[in-house]
């Protein structure tokens, strides 16, 4: 009888070929085999997954874990606990920390501060320095395959790329370097024009009108044209409106190297929720109308969205309860991402089975982020040779998310009191349990991942 380090037995395994009853065998932190359920192999450790679905470890490609420099809001230890409690085993952290991740030295210093505190594996998106976009040429693939630019700013995003000539230069630099560009795509000039006319919002409910969809539509149109001109891959983050979704989907269908992300927050809340939640759901881009949310969900079901991210960006609760003009955008979300996404899928397709819905989850939260961002040789699927990142999930459990469940350092959630359908029972990263419901957390030995040896070409949108 063949012996493995770990055998996860009898779960409904969501793999590249669909969902099937299977045993997953693990050796040396890697998936050694996916076998028919009831196989006669043994494991030094065995986990009974009967009655549960087994998913690949999820990838949140859009987090702000606030390390370094903003750890009064969040720190890596708390954020990684939140991640694994939500089935996330790999994160891609954004560059707008203090200092920003503008150089390879910044990335190495960030890794040094994180090491020994992380329950998740991680990569970094490099930051685009508006004053020196050419500095991206100093990054090696091991340090960054992606770079993020902000086209408008807010409280924790002071480095805004406003100069059209520098934006054009950025696309040229990224093309030469083979980098995929990520964008907070709202046009700063549009917002400045509106601010000169109407001033600052007086109430939380005014915020969406003061940061309207027009900013995103203008920015997205510019980015599509730049992607067409340069052939540079561009991934637009946290798309909030139906018009942006239509433009980006049309660009991808036309063969342009353009992909896009929706967030759990924009899929969960609408402007009508502001009366109840106030600044807890203040985001940048703003939460929009029901018709916009409906369009985003439609894109998830139809495969137009490439990734769904949390945009996990906590603030201390006291910071969120200041006067309307001063309340910072951003909220915690990495722990809530998977349950909110699955609950939303169930509510919008009540007759669909978990076997039909969970492949949607694994596409946008595992396979596509792994492929687009350069870790598909280790992450994103349950297949021999990949890291043994596994999530044991009970799709039938209904549970209420309360303050006692929150792992983020800020201690609050905009989803307080939500009734979720589906719950993570256990999260395994590289063959070892890092979260088990009611049993706590494992060892924080997450690592800075090296990129795939054969990365996806930056212009590939398949």
Automatic annotation (TrEMBL):
Residue stretches making up the Amidohydrolase-related domain: 54-434
SUPFAM superfamilies, sorted: Composite domain of metallo-dependent hydrolases (SSF51338), Metallo-dependent hydrolases (SSF51556)
Cofactor: Zn(2+)
Keywords: Hydrolase, Metal-binding
Pfam families referenced in this protein's UniProt entry, alphabetically: Amidohydro_1
InterPro entries in alphabetical order: Amidohydro-rel, DHOase/Allantoinase_Hydrolase, Dihydroorotase_CS, Metal-dep_hydrolase_composite, Metal_Hydrolase
UniProt keyword annotation of DNA repair present: no
Role summary: Catalyzes the reversible cyclization of carbamoyl aspartate to dihydroorotate.
Family in the record: Belongs to the metallo-dependent hydrolases superfamily. DHOase family. Class I DHOase subfamily.
Protein name: Dihydroorotase family protein
Gene source species: Amycolatopsis halotolerans
